[in-house]
Design a protein that fits this description.
Layout: E1 5-10, H1 18-31, E2 36-41, H2 43-46, H3 56-70, E3 77-81, H4 87-96, H5 101-105, H6 108-116, H7 123-137, E4 143-144, H8 151-168, E5 176-177, H9 209-217, H10 235-245, H11 249-260, H12 266-292, H13 295-323
Parallel strand pairs: 1-2, 2-3, 4-5
Helix pairs in contact: 3-12, 4-7, 4-13, 7-8, 9-12
Length: about 325
């Protein structure tokens, strides 16, 4: 029986952080044993917002190394750098000829990015969901492990697949969101989730214990004298969520009682978190060092993934060009 194909990608915005690890990579690890997986560094998506071109290649490579150190196995899944497989761009252009601009302009993510980067509103930003659809449809992906916030983009994928199939004959599956066991990782800055775009909100997977301690020290709290139930949102709530996330359950109960008794010491809580986070990251960092020191191995894995993905992509593009009358 053929395994269902899964596609997932992370933008090349620098080294992965705890949010990427718990929210995406741990889900990838669970998928690679039971599905036909392609995991990508989506560098073409990266350049739709302000970025440093001089650091892009190193950022791409860092994520590949992070993938490998986290446990993604090139014998079980395909690792891809998006821009190295030209089919992504070609298919995106072909799909854009059958999809209305007005639908893209109405997407909440496009409106959010326009507000976030008012001086950097470009065609690529509008085009982002079409390229995202191309990423998945190029490999005839059926499942996409993303959060519920990406559902509007998945609906665009399904609409494009339906439109193409109705115009040119059945070609693409309609991708569905695949809910993994990935956890929501709260921001250290007090609101929302951990994100590279928010200064002070994240801890990198490569951070040493002193850096982790420094980042947590800056996380906002309250006076510690309020009492009652632990807040449901804000800086204090996020620190307690991290205790749960790192399975520090006995410490959680202790600090919860301290909070209720108006006797909590946040320096102590943050130190417990520092130790718990570093304990989780230390094995990853040790594995990462092995790949950092063997550049030939990493190069060979990248090349192997490129060749395998190009082969799959070319099969799709031959079919698409023929159905659209281009060959």
């Amino acid at each position: 029986m053929n395994k269902k194909r899964v596609y997932s990608g992370i933008r090349a915005t620098g080294r992965l952080h705890l949010g990427n690890y718990f929210g995406a990579v741990k889900g990838m690890l669970a998928l690679q044993d039971n599905y036909d997986c392609i995991f990508s560094v989506v560098d073409l998506h990266t350049i739709t917002v302000p970025y440093d071109s001089s650091k892009l290649q190193s950022s791409i490579r860092e994520i590949i190394i992070d993938y490998l150190a986290a446990g993604l196995d090139p014998k079980k899944c395909h690792l891809e750098i998006q821009s190295k497989v030209l089919g992504h761009v070609e298919l995106a252009y072909l799909l854009s000829t059958i999809y209305p601009v007005s639908r893209l302009e109405d997407l909440p993510t496009y409106k959010d990015k326009k507000a976030q980067y008012p001086k950097y509103i470009n065609m690529g930003l509008l085009y982002y969901p079409v390229l995202m659809a191309s990423d998945v449809l190029l490999y005839k992906g059926e499942l996409v492990p993303v959060g519920i916030d990406q559902e509007p983009h998945l609906e665009v994928m399904r609409e494009i697949a339906r439109k193409f199939n109705s115009m040119f004959g059945h070609t693409f599956p309609e991708p569905q969101r695949f809910k993994t066991d990935g956890d929501y990782v709260p921001s250290l800055s007090g609101g929302g989730k951990m994100s590279k775009s928010i200064v002070g909100s994240y801890i990198n997977l490569t951070d040493d214990i002193e850096t982790i301690r420094t980042r947590l020290a800056l996380a906002p709290t309250d006076s510690g004298k309020i009492g009652g139930e632990v807040p449901k949102e804000g800086g204090v709530a996020n620190l307690f969520s991290l205790l749960r996330l790192f399975k520090l359950d006995s410490q959680y109960k202790k600090f919860e009682q301290d909070y209720m008794n108006k006797n909590i010491h946040y320096a102590e809580l943050k130190e417990v978190l520092t130790q718990g986070i570093y304990k989780e990251l230390k094995p990853f960092q040790e594995r990462r060092k092995i790949f950092e020191e063997d550049s030939n191995l990493v190069d060979s894995i990248i090349e192997e993934g490129r060749l395998k993905c190009i082969k799959i992509a070319q099969e799709t593009m031959v079919e698409v060009r023929k159905k659209m009358g281009l060959s």
